[in-house]
Each structure stands twice: as C-alpha cells, then as structure tokens.
C-alpha cells in the first residue's frame, strides 16, 4: 500500500504524481461517473451505465485515464480486498519549467532573432534527446488505433537499438503492468519489444578494434556480448533477416510473419573485410582472432579510410604493434569528414602523424585491394608498402528491404528519410514506422557512444 505521495520525472519535462486513492465505495458520485464512463472491459469496449459494483470492476484491461491523465493498474486487476489503486497525474514540474517573466523591452529586430533561435532549438533532433523524449518515449506515448496487445517490432539490435530497447523495457513492462492512456478515448496496451536480428550477439566496435590488435584481456569475448545479457528474458529475439515489410507485419527469410503496431528500423550498416562479422558469436570470436594473427605476421599495414574507424585503427596499431609500418589513405583533403570543424580535423592530422603513421590525403586505394609484391597502388599511381589492407571506408546502409515497402522513403544514398521525431516519411502517411542509427538521412555525425552504445 502506498501511504504518501511520490513523484518521478518523465521524458517531457513533467512529473508523475503517484498517490493512494480511496476504496471504490468512498469515491464521490462525480468520480464514479467518470470512472464508469471511461472504463473498459476485457474486450476493449467501453463500459456505460450505472457505476460498476466491486466484483465487476475492470481487470487486466485496466482503468482508462481521466482526461489529461495516465492510469497504471496491476495486470491482476482490482479485487474486493483492494484498498487502493495507483493513479498518476501529469502536472507541471517546477524544476524543468521556467516561470513566466515580463517581456523585456527590446527592439523588434532583437525579438525576431530570439524567436528564430528558439524555433531552431525546438526543432532540433538532439534537443529532443536532451529533454529525454527519445524514440522510446515517443513510441511509449503514441497510442495504437485499436484495443488489444500489440507488438513493437525492432529490426536490428546495434548501437542505437540496444539502449532504445532497454529504455522500452523500463517503460513497457507487459509482465506486471499495462499502460492506459486516453487520447482520445483509445485504449492503449503495449507489450515488450520483438527484436529481429541475424546475429546472436551485440558487437561493441571500439572494443573489437582493440581486440583485433592485442590478446590482452580476451577483448573479443567481451566485445561480442550475447543478447541475453543485454535484454531481460521478456524480450523476444527472432533470428534472421527481413525479407518483406507490409503495413501491418514483417516477414523474415525463415518464413516467420510478425505483426506490429509500431515498427522501428535500426538495421545499421553492412561492412566488408575485417569488419564483416559472422552471425554466430563463436564464429565471430574466431574471425577476430584470425585477423589478429594476420596482422601479427605483417610488416606494413595500409588503412583505407580516414574516418572514425580508420583513425581508431591507426591509434591501436601504433600503440600495440609499434613495429608495424602504418599508412592511412583518405580521399578527402583532411582526415575525418565535414561534419567536424576544420580546427578539429587539423588537430587529428597532427595527432596521427605524431604517432608515427604515414598519412596520404586526396588519394584513393580500392578497399578490396590485394597487395602484390608487398605493395598497393593508389589511384594517382603512388606505390605504398603493404602486407595487409584494412577497409575502413564505412559501411553501406542496410535498407534494401525498405525499398520494396516504400521506395519514396529511401534516399539516393540508401538512407531513410525521417522527420525530426524519427518517424519514417512514408507515402501512405502512416505514423507508426520509425528509424534510427546509421541508416537515417540526418545531417549530424551518428556516434554509437552518444546513444549509449558503449554499454
């Protein structure tokens, strides 16, 4: 029994107040009418008429919230021995809301500039994350169109999907509670996610890059994390690739048809070479160890691509294998990409050269190049000493299955067109398909660590 008021912050800057309520018999006549009008039975239909007696109260379907409120009820229902139930009420949070002050006396030009800046901040993708909205929060507060248990299907379980799924687990506990939400007069019952992923492990790339150059700590085992350590047992993991998407279901290459109420596309990138890991964890561990043995037997290494992965590889090679001659080849005039400021890119170049690595800018080497007689040849004809070539040019968006669903949602680069809330821009106008991570078309650097991928 809860004997005093408790508060908890929620994503949108408000607080939830959890308070005890009186037994059913002591509820005022007005409250009885509200509960009667807004209650739902097991079939999802609205109850109507006179107030329900104790033995006829709603059970697992819960009690729908009053207007502007959420209601949380135990799945076991409210029985005759219950002395209270949990209700929640959304109210302003003084810690996150700034009190209104008189408007300062400023010029019209200054006021327009201030309004423009405020609008930009409101529309910012990262502003939403800082406020705690996030994709999990948006999904968990978006009501389905019909009553009944619905799946939240997530395609992929990488650096962006894993923390989102973990957040959903906390918000949507289908084993003990159901979340009722009135908006408008819809009964919203959400379940735990269903994850479709061909691998049986989560690949933590920063750890795996180091594991490929040193035996210390058996990092290949730590960096390939079984999904049963990432999610609780209630999350359903379906092994396989997606073959087809329809407006209401996902079909895998194993023939499984999985219906969804919400669909999250987080399929990530397709890599090649050393970063192309097998789907089995045991095979992936051996893959990393085999590549490490190849590096140990090489005298010179060429890293193709001067982005985050390429620069990381250079640093690890020079630290753990200082006897190797390391050259990094990048097609742009500076390391990294234009997302980062020029000052940072210059500092990065200085740090790499200080490690003793050779840097070749404005030139290209085929990522699939095979050294001949201990050399590779660049596009301009330059010969570079190499016993092994590491492809770090980046992955391709894994979105081929989306084209058959809605070609208009896929950009010419293969990325997914999304709104600032991460909804996929579908020709049908559907609002229940989302995307995140490497596959989205968004003008910001997507770094797994910022989204919790370091877990």
TrEMBL record:
Domain of life: Eukaryota
One Gene Ontology cellular component annotation held by this UniProt entry: cytoplasm
Biased composition (Basic residues): 109-119
Gene3D superfamilies for this protein: FAD/NAD(P)-binding domain
Record organism: Ceratobasidium theobromae
Molecular-function annotations in GO: electron-transferring-flavoprotein dehydrogenase activity; flavin adenine dinucleotide binding
Feature: compositional bias, Polar residues: 49-58
Family note: Belongs to the FAD-dependent oxidoreductase family.
Protein name: Pyridine nucleotide-disulfide oxidoreductase
Sorted UniProt keywords: FAD, Flavoprotein, Oxidoreductase
Pfam families to which the protein is assigned, alphabetical: Pyr_redox_2 (PF07992)
Chain segments carrying region Disordered: 21-122
The keyword Lyase is assigned to this record: no
Domain FAD/NAD(P)-binding: 151-445
């Amino acid at each position: 029994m809860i004997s005093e008021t408790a508060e908890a912050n929620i994503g949108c800057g408000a607080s939830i107040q959890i308070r005890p309520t009186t037994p059913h018999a002591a509820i005022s006549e007005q409250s009885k009418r509200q509960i009667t009008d807004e209650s739902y039975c097991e079939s999802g239909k609205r109850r109507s008429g006179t107030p329900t007696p104790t033995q006829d109260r709603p059970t697992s379907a819960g009690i729908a919230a009053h207007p502007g409120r959420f209601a949380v009820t135990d799945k076991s229902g409210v029985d005759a021995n219950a002395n209270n139930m949990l209700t929640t009420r959304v109210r302003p949070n003084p810690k996150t809301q700034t009190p209104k002050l008189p408007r300062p006396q400023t010029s019209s030009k200054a006021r327009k500039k201030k309004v423009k800046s405020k609008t930009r901040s409101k529309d910012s993708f990262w502003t939403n994350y800082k406020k705690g909205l996030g994709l999990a929060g948006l999904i968990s507060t978006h009501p389905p169109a019909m009553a009944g248990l619905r799946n939240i299907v997530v395609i992929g379980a990488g650096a962006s999907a894993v923390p989102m799924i973990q957040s959903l687990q906390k918000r949507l506990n289908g084993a003990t509670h159901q979340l009722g939400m009135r908006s408008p007069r819809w009964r919203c019952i959400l379940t735990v996610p269903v994850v479709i992923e061909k691998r049986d492990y989560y690949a933590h790339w920063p750890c795996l890059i180091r594991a490929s150059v040193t035996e210390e700590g058996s990092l290949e085992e730590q960096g390939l994390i079984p999904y049963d350590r990432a999610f609780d047992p209630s999350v359903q993991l379906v092994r396989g690739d997606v073959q087809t998407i329809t407006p209401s279901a996902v079909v895998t290459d194993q023939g499984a048809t999985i219906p969804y109420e919400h669909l999250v596309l987080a399929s990530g990138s397709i890599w090649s070479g050393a970063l192309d890991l097998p789907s089995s964890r045991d095979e992936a561990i051996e893959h990393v160890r085999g590549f490490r043995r190849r590096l140990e037997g090489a005298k010179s290494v060429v890293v193709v691509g001067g982005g985050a992965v390429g620069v990381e590889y250079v640093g690890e090679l020079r630290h753990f294998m200082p006897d190797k001659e390391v050259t990094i080849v990048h097609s742009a005039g500076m390391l990294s990409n234009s997302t980062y400021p020029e000052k940072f890119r210059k500092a990065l170049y200085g740090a790499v050269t200080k490690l003793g690595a050779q840097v070749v800018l404005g030139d290209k080497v085929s990522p699939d190049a095979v050294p001949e007689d201990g050399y590779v040849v660049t596009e301009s004809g330059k010969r570079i000493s190499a016993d092994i070539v590491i492809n770090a040019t980046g992955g391709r968006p894994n979105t081929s299955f989306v084209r058959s669903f809605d070609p208009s949602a896929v950009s010419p680069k293969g990325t997914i067109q999304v709104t600032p809330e991460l909804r996929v821009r579908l020709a049908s106008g559907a609002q229940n398909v989302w995307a995140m991570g490497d596959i989205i078309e968004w003008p910001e650097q997507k770094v797994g660590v910022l989204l919790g991928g370091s877990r």
